[in-house]
């Protein structure tokens, strides 16, 4: 078993997994726990898989300090599937829901929700997405079914930090897909917290949904069973065959997080990594430019342009080429915004971040003229 030939993967998702997790997966691929089969071959109804599933739920509850009045579900359809599942499950007798649109993913969520509930935006979004308007300027409605926000916009690099938005007496719904377990999380005022596992917690295919118990049972009649929180809870996430391999992978990642000291230790390391890259940007005399308001800069997805605010595509292409030659991949920004995006998820080490930092300094020096 060797890690030779591994790249430094700054992809936005699916993203890097910890090497320790990959090696453990390799070790157990043919024979999980001495059972003579792989996890992905096991029956999801077996007692062995049931034990794995329940252990994974317990690890999430422990690491995130999930309150007892929340259920933890394993679902499918990605975070995008929850864009529909949330209004389908939470509409109840309400007429509408409030949405905070701060980037590409919250915009998509609002657009999808409009099929199942009336959507009101608490402020008028404006592009380019680079900040979050002051909350005292938001238009809230205490009769809304919920208030939706994306905790971290992967495309634009905008993150609600350090606290969630004010709820105004309605349940908060948080999409934490790209900063899931990257920092301690406060469940205060939240009704639903969800995210795909493929950025910080495992492999694509598994969606983790944490739902407050008093919100269960309000689903619309048209809600598909696989998207019904009530149905999934009644069946311990086994209404249909779950992504068994994904749950196993997440189990290993959770154990890895715990071994590293838990969320506070992970958070401190993430601050150190992102601070290193933002420090180079801010001290580059405009050679590197991050347009995001410093109050809302993501510690997960550092987005920037090279050669000034508008970016110089020739310089950026040269930077990416040099990065690839130095074993770094997936640094190209999202097609809708361009530039560079370094995704510094939990599995990215400080040493790997330092390789990027060194290249950024070298590249600026080479083009300082």
From TrEMBL:
It catalyses: 4-(phosphooxy)-L-threonine + 2-oxoglutarate = (R)-3-hydroxy-2-oxo-4-phosphooxybutanoate + L-glutamate; O-phospho-L-serine + 2-oxoglutarate = 3-phosphooxypyruvate + L-glutamate. Residues 9-355 form the Aminotransferase class V domain. Its cofactor is pyridoxal 5'-phosphate. InterPro entries: Aminotrans_V_dom, Aminotrans_V_PyrdxlP_BS, Pser_aminoTfrase, PyrdxlP-dep_Trfase, PyrdxlP-dep_Trfase_major, PyrdxlP-dep_Trfase_small. It is an enzyme of class 2 (transferase). Its EC number is 2.6.1.52. One of its GO terms (biological process) is L-serine biosynthetic process. It comes from the Eukaryota. GO terms for molecular function: O-phospho-L-serine:2-oxoglutarate aminotransferase activity. Signal peptide: none annotated. Gene3D superfamilies: Aspartate Aminotransferase, domain 1, Type I PLP-dependent aspartate aminotransferase-like (Major domain). SUPFAM superfamilies: PLP-dependent transferases. Keywords: Amino-acid biosynthesis, Aminotransferase, Pyridoxal phosphate, Serine biosynthesis, Transferase. Pathway: Amino-acid biosynthesis; L-serine biosynthesis; L-serine from 3-phospho-D-glycerate: step 2/3. Belongs to the class-V pyridoxal-phosphate-dependent aminotransferase family. SerC subfamily. HAMAP family: SerC_aminotrans_5. This is Phosphoserine aminotransferase. It comes from Caenorhabditis briggsae.
């Amino acid at each position: 078993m060797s890690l030779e030939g591994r790249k430094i993967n700054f992809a936005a998702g699916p993203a890097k997994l910890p090497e320790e997790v990959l090696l453990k997966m390799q070790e157990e691929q043919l024979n999980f726990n001495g059972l003579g089969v792989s996890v992905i071959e096991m029956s999801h109804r077996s007692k062995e898989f049931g034990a794995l599933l329940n252990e994974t739920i317990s690890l999430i509850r422990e690491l995130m300090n999930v309150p007892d009045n929340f259920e933890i579900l394993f679902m499918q359809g990605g975070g995008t599937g929850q864009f529909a599942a949330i209004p389908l499950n939470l509409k109840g007798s309400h007429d509408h829901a409030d949405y905070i649109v701060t980037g590409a993913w919250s915009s998509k969520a609002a657009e999808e929700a409009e099929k199942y509930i009336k959507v009101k935006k608490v402020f008028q979004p404006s592009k380019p997405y680079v900040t979050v308007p002051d909350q005292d300027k938001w238009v809230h409605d205490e009769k809304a079914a919920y208030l939706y926000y994306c905790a971290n916009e992967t495309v634009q690099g905008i993150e609600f930090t350090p606290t969630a938005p004010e709820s105004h007496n309605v349940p908060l719904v948080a999409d934490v897909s790209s900063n899931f377990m990257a920092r301690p999380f406060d469940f205060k005022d939240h009704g639903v917290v969800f995210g795909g596992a493929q950025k910080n917690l495992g492999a694509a295919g598994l969606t983790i949904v944490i739902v407050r118990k008093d919100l269960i049972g309000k689903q619309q009649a048209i809600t598909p069973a696989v998207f019904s929180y009530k149905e999934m809870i009644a069946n311990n996430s086994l209404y249909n065959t779950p992504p068994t391999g994904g749950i196993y992978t997440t189990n290993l990642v959770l154990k890895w997080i715990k071994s590293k000291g838990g969320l506070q230790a992970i958070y401190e390391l993430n601050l150190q990594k992102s601070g290193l890259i933002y420090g180079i940007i801010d001290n580059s005399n405009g050679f590197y430019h991050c347009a995001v308001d410093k109050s809302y800069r993501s510690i997960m997805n550092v987005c920037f342009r090279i050669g000034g605010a508008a970016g110089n595509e020739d310089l950026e292409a040269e930077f990416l080429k040099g990065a690839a030659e130095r074993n770094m991949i997936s640094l190209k920004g999202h097609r809708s915004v361009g530039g560079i995006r370094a995704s510094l998820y939990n599995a990215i080490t400080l040493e790997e971040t330092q390789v990027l930092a060194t290249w950024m300094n070298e590249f600026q020096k080479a083009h300082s003229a």
